[in-house]
Specification:
By secondary structure, the chain is mainly beta. The protein is built from 4 helices and 28 strands. It folds into 2 domains: about 230 residues, no CATH class; about 160 residues, Immunoglobulin-like. Strands 1, 2, 3, 4, 6, 7, 8, 9, 10, 12, 13, 14 and 15 form a 13-stranded mixed β-sheet that branches. Strands 16, 17, 18, 20, 21, 22, 24, 26 and 27 form a 9-stranded antiparallel β-sheet that branches. A 4-stranded antiparallel β-sheet has the order 23-25-19-28, with no helix packed on it. It starts with 20 loop residues before the first strand and ends with a strand.
Length: about 425
């Protein structure tokens, strides 16, 4: 019996596909003004001007923005007269809203933005006539329902060829935009000098978003059936368009105080009340008769202007447990002082979703319980901080009389929450 041994070899072919990408960097900022209640989440463009709005500004409205689109398409095979749409000058773009999550580079906080291509411009160049298209000889009126007339196209020519420039507004749909040739086209030609207009708005309420720089990337495919689709005949210079978003959110937070509100004298007063110095003298006289120990209270008023989120806490010259303290001049005894925060009614606690009235202030940053959101932009709204020494602590103070207790409490309003 004869055995035949077969040695089977597996040949593995490593194949790699090269993905060419075109990159666009878009920058914008959101800086709500305290004296302007507009909080619609629209960014102010800070990207250097490029594209058709830069070259032909008369074709752009005041709020229009455009950016150079680093793509070129070249024809693959001749176009026959009355061609099928995808075999000729065919275009489609990310015209429907695309949602992207951008992230704060320092804190990790995120929010969503909505991006959409709102217009498209390109130049067609050929070594023969650029005319002889349906719906008029030029490129002013696209077909397909995906784009609309914006401005008449224009162009020029010489003995070596001609060119035509056009700008279309896009519709918020997935329909294509195309032109049908009325003649056979065998000559080489291409679409280049492309640019696009776009809109960029926040999906989330930016008044609740912390200040900082947020980044994200949109990646769009290029090619038949892709996000940027130039039909079956025209080959694009790249297969991916990456759009890097770099967004700056800058909130205002202004606290205005007076010298009187920064130098306080604690006065004996009834529970929940704030007394003047004269009333305090009267209450000490009453104590000498009744021997009923009062509380000591004081109030610091302030005006607050805010457009975003912030947190508050206190720092102490002297600390007693979880509170600041005042210190006896006689023997150094410390007595705790509680601080209670009341904010304007346009500001709510993020955790409880309620307005802030006499909230006990911590001596350290507590973003879980003490992060506050601005519901509506407010300018010079009234707030206050109430200070309190409890009755049993006043009893301790009276044991060292005559005496003076003093200390410094620093109130922190911090928009850098994280």
């Amino acid at each position: 019996m004869r055995y035949y041994h077969y040695i089977l070899g597996t040949v593995m072919l490593a194949m790699s596909a090269v993905v060419n990408s075109a990159t666009i960097n878009l920058t914008a900022k959101f800086t709500p003004a305290i004296n302007n209640s507009n909080s619609d989440g629209i960014f102010t463009n800070t990207t250097p001007r490029s594209g058709y709005c830069s070259r032909w500004p008369k074709y752009c409205d005041a709020n229009d923005v455009s950016v150079y689109l680093p793509l070129t398409t070249t024809i693959s095979y001749p176009i026959v007269a009355k061609n099928k749409p995808r075999e000729g000058a065919y275009f489609n773009f990310p015209k429907t809203p695309r949602i992207l999550t951008v992230r704060n580079q320092n804190t990790g906080e995120t929010f969503d933005v909505i991006f959409r291509v709102t217009s498209y411009s390109s130049q067609l160049t050929t070594n023969s006539s650029s005319s002889s298209w349906d719906e008029g000889k030029d490129f002013s009126a696209p077909r397909g329902g995906g784009c609309t007339f914006y401005t008449p196209s224009w162009g020029g020519g010489s003995g070596s060829g001609s060119w035509i420039q056009f700008i279309w507004k896009t519709s918020n749909n997935t329909s294509p935009c195309y032109k049908i040739s009325t003649i056979n086209r065998t000559e080489p030609h291409r679409f280049y000098d492309m640019s696009m207009g776009y809109s960029l708005v926040a999906k989330d309420n930016l008044l609740t978003v912390g200040s900082g720089t947020y980044k994200g990337k949109l990646s769009f495919t290029v090619g038949p059936g892709g996000d940027f689709d130039f039909g079956d005949n025209y080959q694009a210079s790249d297969s991916v368009v990456d759009i890097n978003l770099i967004l700056s959110v800058n909130h205002d937070l202004i606290v205005t105080t007076t010298p009187e509100s920064r130098a306080l004298s604690l006065q004996p007063c009834s529970a929940g009340k704030i007394c003047t110095e004269e009333q305090g003298k009267q209450n000490w006289e009453r104590w000498m008769i009744t021997k009923i120990t009062p509380q000591l209270t004081a109030r610091s008023d302030f005006l607050l202007s805010s457009t975003g989120a912030f947190t508050t806490y206190i720092q102490c010259q002297y600390v007693h447990g979880e509170n600041c303290a005042i210190k006896s001049d006689n023997n150094g005894q410390l007595v705790p002082v509680k601080a209670y925060l009341s904010l304007p009614n346009n500001i709510i606690n993020q955790k409880t979703n309620s307005t802030v009235t006499r909230a006990l202030m911590p001596i350290h940053k507590d973003i879980v319980n003490n992060t506050f959101l601005t519901k509506d932009i407010g300018s010079n709204r009234k707030g206050n901080i109430d200070f309190l020494v409890a009755q049993h602590d006043v009893d301790k103070m009276l044991l060292t009389r005559p005496d003076t207790y003093r200390g410094t409490v620093t109130i922190i309003f911090d928009p850098q929450i994280y």
